[in-house]
Structure formats: structure tokens, C-alpha cells
Amino acid sequence: MTVFLILLYALVLPYIGLMLLVVVGMFRSGARPKSAAQPSASVVIPAHNEQDKLGATLESLSRQSYPGPLEFVIVNDRSTDATRSIIEGFALRDSRFRLVEVLEPSKRLAPKVNAVDTGIRAARGEIILASDADCQYPEGWVAGLVSHFEPDVAMVVGYVESSPKGGATSALQRFEATDWFTLMIVSRSLTHFGWKFASSANNQAYRRSAWDAVGGFGASGRAPSGDEDLLTQRMGRLPGMRVVFASAPETRVLTRAAPTALALLRQRRRWVSRYQHLMHYHPGFLASIGVLGFQSVLLAFAVILAAFVPAIAPWVFGLWALKLLVEFVGMGIGTRQLDRRDLWGFTTLFW
Fold it and tell me: What average pLDDT does the structure give for the chain?
């Protein structure tokens, strides 16, 4: 049992240390919109059989109020439903919309990455904003993200949520909204330290010149589905350039919540599947992912084991209580800073 407890503490204590680092990062100064420039911007949206969601997404984009040159590059990725005709309809109504077609699958890029890649290569803007076909945007989304591009900023990582404030009603919605929030505050805090590890494909913006400089997607091998973390890490290594995080309300993207627990599980499974391409990720990023996963599994096992080996119970539950305290306090600070107090309290404990 002694060896087991040593292993348990060796995994959980570093995790708690990482969470304390996230809390400290919440108090570091982040990016504030400063740039008054209005460069040309291209919003790239990949769409594969999205007829049920795409109309609302494009309608939301059509309300953007960006004063500079703006286009919406909507990529039809070999859809077999009405996706193409929906895009064509918006292009007829609003000249800012453009239809781009993916005609053949890529042997090097995963399908979604290939669709975004195709859209970027067809885009004309100096700033690329990438998102998904099932999202909603505030009217100032484009303007808000672009305002973060000072001369030394290569990429802006945007905030994503699955439910608006007060909008999560069911237990599943509250769980997913809280899970998204934890991902956002960790990414935000690490970015405040200058560590460029992760971002969400639902809300990214980067200079076209930076994308070209890092070689685009799949520069270090076959791009997995969800190449956004790799892209963030490569852009963060560009000499003299920064990656910043945007969390103001006008820069937030609302993604569609998972309809069922099984759908949420499948989504998270897809996210984890990208880490099979281990050689391409930053070692610190992989170490953090490893600590997060293994400590969760081992601590859960230890809690169950304590029922059969009472001698270890004080050590296990003491460690678990410390972990819970750090997470609970950290979430309290984060939800207050980002005006999501609806996700604290019992909701945090449930998560």
C-alpha cells in the first residue's frame, strides 16, 4: 500500500500544482484590444452535411458589423444533403458570402482539416477567422478578435461556450457548459504565462502570413482531426510573435451543446483521438495531458479501494479534499472574472 500511496501522491500533487498555476494565471494581465486597424478579414467555415445547423450559423455571421473588408468563405465538403444550396442562397443575398468546394479527399489531411485548409487557400483576407458550422456569434465577433492583432500578435485564441449565461438548464447542459469553461480558463491562464499550448477550432483567428510561415496544417506530418492545438503551438514558436487569448463577451462563440450524454462522450473521444500523433505536440503539453488523465483514474481507483483498506482512507480522502478545494476555489475565481457565476456552487461540485 505504501508504494501505491507514493504513486498516487506523485501523480495528484503535480496536478494540484498545475491547477494552482492556473489560478495564479487568472490574475496575470492578459491581452486587451488596442489595435484600431481594420485589415481585410476572412471567416472560414467548413461544412459537411450540415443542412440542419448551417442556416442559423450563416444568419448569425450575416449580422457582423466589422467596418473593414470582410468575406465569409463557406466550404462545402462533399455534402450529400442541402448544404450547398443553403450556402448558395446566402451568397445570392449577401456578396460577402462565398462558396468553396472540396472535390477530393486529402491523403495527408483529415477531412475537416482539409476543408479548412481549402477555405484558407481560397481566402483573400489578411486575418483568418476559423470556426464551425454549428456556432453562433455576437455582432462584434470579427471586430473584437481583429482588435487584438497588434503587430507582434500571430494568433488570437477565442473563448467558446456551449450554453450562454443562465442557459444551461438540464444536468447534462450544466455539466457540458462547466467542462467547456474549465478548458477555457486553463487555456486563458496558460496563455497569460506565454505558454501557447491549446485552442478550440470553434474560435480562432490568425494572420495569414503566420499561417504561411508555419507551413499551414500538417507541416510536421499527417494532420489529425483537430489540428488547432498543433497550429497554436507552432505559431507560438514564431520568432518575435505572440499568441493571446480573447475572452470579452463580444469575442465569445456559442457552440451547439451535445444533445445526449452519448453524443458528448463521442465528442470527447474524438478530441482525445488526436493525441495519437504524439511526436508533433509540445512535450510540456503532453506531460500535462498525461498527468490529468492518470491522476483522475488512479484517484478514482483509490477512493474505491479505501472502502476495502481503511488504513489508506485518511491519505486518500485528504488528498481528494485538497484537490477538490483547489478546483472549487479556482472555478469560483474564474466564474467571477468571466461573469459565469451560474456555473459555480453545486454545478461545479457536480462537474
Answer: 90
- The whole-number pLDDT of residue 182 equals 95
Starting at the edge strand that comes first in sequence, how are the strands of the sheet with 135-136 ordered? 135-136, 253-255, 160-161
Identify the DSSP state of 278. Answer: G
Which residues touch 48 (CB under 8 Å, ≥6 apart)? 76, 77, 78, 79, 83, 111, 112, 115, 133
Residue of 263, 264, 122 lying closest to 179 (CA atoms): 264
Q: Is the pLDDT of residue 18 over 60?
A: yes
> Which candidate, 185, 162, 198, 156, places its Cα nearest to that of 39?
156
Cβ-count burial of 170 within 10 angstroms (0-12 exposed, 13-18 middle, 19+ buried)? exposed
Q: What is the pLDDT of residues 80-118, one digit of tens each?
A: 999 999 999 999 999 999 999 998 988 888 888 899 999
Q: Which residues contact 236 (CB under 8 A, 6 or more apart)?
A: 154, 155, 195, 196, 242, 243
What is the Cα–Cα distance from 127 to 76, expressed in whole angstroms? 21
* Residue 73 pLDDT greater than 90, yes or no: yes
Q: Are 206 and 261 in contact (CB under 8 A)?
A: no
pLDDT band at 226 (very low <50, low <70, confident <90, very high): low
Q: Which amino acid is at 37?
A: A
Residue 4 CB burial class (10 angstroms; 0-12, 13-18, ≥19)? middle
In this prediction, residue 233 carries a pLDDT of 86
pLDDT value, residue 260? 93
Q: Which of 28, 40, 50 is nearest to 129 (CA)?
A: 40
CA 68 to each of CA 33, 41, 71, 187, 268: distance values in angstroms, whole numbers, following the listed order = 16, 8, 10, 29, 37
The string over 112-129, giving b where at least 16 C-beta atoms fall within 10 Å of a residue's C-beta and e elsewhere, is bbbbbbbbbebbebbbbb
For the chain, give the longest Cα–Cα distance.
Answer: 72
Kindly report the length of the chain.
351
Other beta carbons within 10 angstroms of residue 103's beta carbon come to 8
- Quick check: 201 and 171 in contact, CB under 8 A? no
